[in-house]
Amino acid sequence: MIRRLLALSALLVLTACGKGEAPAAAEKPQGLTFSIVSTENPQTQMQEWGPFLTDMERSIGVPVKPFFGTTYTAAIEAMRFKQSDLGWFTNASGLEAVRRGGGEVFARTTNPEGHDGYQGVIVVPKGHGLTLEKLLKCDRTVNFGMGDAKSTSGTLAPMAYLFSPRGIEPAKCFKTVRSANAEANLFAVGSGLLDAATDNTRSMDRMAVLDTPMARKTLANLEVIWRSPTIPEDPMVWRADLDPAMKAKIAKFIFSYGVGDTPEAVRQRAVLERIQTGPFKHADNSHLLPVREIEAIGQLTEAKAKGDAAGMAKAQASLDQIRTEKAAAPK
Question: Which InterPro entries match (predicted)?
Fold first, then answer.
């Protein structure tokens, strides 16, 4: 009897183990989520990105769905909580995705026009007579638009290169300050809802590509009164803990896409043009050194304005370290 019970128990254990293993064997790939910061409306983004994501899905063999972050913070938090696996970030948001989101830079975009990098700009309505000199008077008569707090061209660059060195705090300088994405800022200035706003040359290029009546009217009503130094092209970031085999598939797709002279490569480059990039290039976290430098310059300028000796020393040490890393980084 005891031998029969032991045999029955063993059979039940084996049966249970077999049942437990079956779902794992039948489990299908969960797919990837590709994060895209919606500096434009999601409908426009999906039209532009859809063909690229479809090609990626075919290449890597698992579903790829988009995550349209309404703010840079949303995209960072999505990666942090593993709601997205990779994506196209701005330099500032990419830095935060690496710092707080468990990400790492693996590629970067390129300018389809051939020149590398872009500029932050301040735009005003054409013919209204608002110059940079008048803007910087800080007489609280200007309704001003800025980017997201994590925007490189919309916030960090103008603060580091224009406002902070002059001791200007936008909230105390202008009548109102609103934060919006690049597309919204362009339309707001072009339609006269704002007197001035930050933006970037890539966003203006994208609007020109749209070539809609509203886009043409908006661009025709704008003029640029300030440009930042050149900012590096945007980074592509994936989760550092992503499966190495999946990383290899993604890399194979990304770095071969649009490369070559075949009819398929020509088609792919046309797809890339829709998202305003040429073929991707290899990159790593050293790509973020320039935006770290912008950040440190802003911190140093702010500490000097406050007479904060400890803050100045800390920011200067950070700036020196960043510049040492830049000098040692591969060109």
Answer: PhnD
